[in-house]
Description:
This protein has helices at 74-84, 103-115, 139-144, 160-173, 195-200, 208-224, 236-247, 258-262, 284-296, 311-314, 331-342, 345-351, 355-361, and strands at 2-12, 17-26, 29-33, 44-47, 52-55, 57-59, 87-92, 120-126, 149-151, 176-179, 191-192, 204-205, 227-230, 252-257, 301-303, 383-393, 412-422, 425-429. The protein is built from 13 helices and 18 strands. By secondary structure, it is α/β, with parallel strands linked by helices.
Amino acid sequence: MKLLIKGGRVIDPASNRDEIADLAIAAGRIVAIGKLPADFAPNRVIEAAGCVVAPGLMDLAVRLREPGHEHEGMLESEMAAAVAGGVTALACPPDTDPVLDEPGLVEMLKFRAEKLHQARVFPIGALTRNLQGEILTEMAELTESGCVAFSQADVPLVNTQILQRAFQYASTFGYAVWLRPNDHYMGQGVAASGALATRLGLSGVPVAAETIALYTIFELMRATGARVHLCRLSSAAGVALVRLAKDQGLPVTCDISINSLHLTDNDIGYFDSRMRLNPPLRQQADRDALREGLADGTIDALVSDHTPVDEDAKMLPFAEAEPGATGVELLLSLALKWGQESGVGLTRALAVLSSEPARVLGNALGTLQASAGQLVVGGVADVCVFDPQAEWTVQPEALRSQGKHTPFAGYELPARVRCTIVGGQIAYQAA
């Protein structure tokens, strides 16, 4: 299949490229940007005038609900949602049913995902058996079957000795450990500690739940040399600690979710269960610090934290409702909205969705490392074409994901994806 993307604004944050140019694709690779080979005869031309041609987005937190919900066809719906949002590669947390702690489960997930010919799936293996925090998984075997890192998802690892051993194992083989910093005992509430949680009578999660966990992680990193990615930071104090750890040379990266980037605890309003999220929405000062940290590079990546939740699970009272929201289709638009509001511009907004997540994954990408998250001649053709001028209103029922609950329902957002190309094949094209 030979494709020609014609007359678009090619933006590649990794190489600082920003120009009006044609982009030619053949045999799953980018063969030219700008001047085309004389003998290039495309099977299909995509008119991209007025559109941005960017690297395919990489989302480091997308729950596909498989294994566990095969009967509902959730893999199909969530992958369709991903490519409709311009996401060409996604990392999938291990808190599936059963948990991703066996090589066979990982291989099955990858096989089923590849059959769909949509986004690339990078499974994250469980750090401990069944996420129970007692017995370490066989990380080497899980890596061979396709895992790119190891995580406890949202389940805190209470036993610090086991966490230390996990770090030693990972460090020996050069694996990355992904952790959400949240103290087990202090982090069991349903909303951020503060005036609003007190007024609504909701159990609070103090900032200290995050910072205490961070101090523990950093000390164990110093002792073991392990590489850690922190998932979903939520507080100003957390950002300050990460900034300090990076200044000290610790091999740490981190991400934040689109929810924490745009919303605060005030959005809970009168017990709106769509705002029941993990981590909980914090105060405005925290949100401002997260925005600043993403702009200056302290925070490496922006994720959708896509968690499709059943209708029934959100109809419960706030404290009992299942945490999570759908978000993979909104990721690009919400990143660009932040880029506009904060003044960092289009290139930085795209960098936190493409080249920076690719850098976080690093050598776990294998042969894709040289070209994932960027547009390079000879590199893999994962491309997102979007119209930056288009505006749209979020209508939950129109989303492709089976999870219709989003805190951004009714929001007016910039940019619409026109076409998503994965490995040189058109995975999505807007009607």
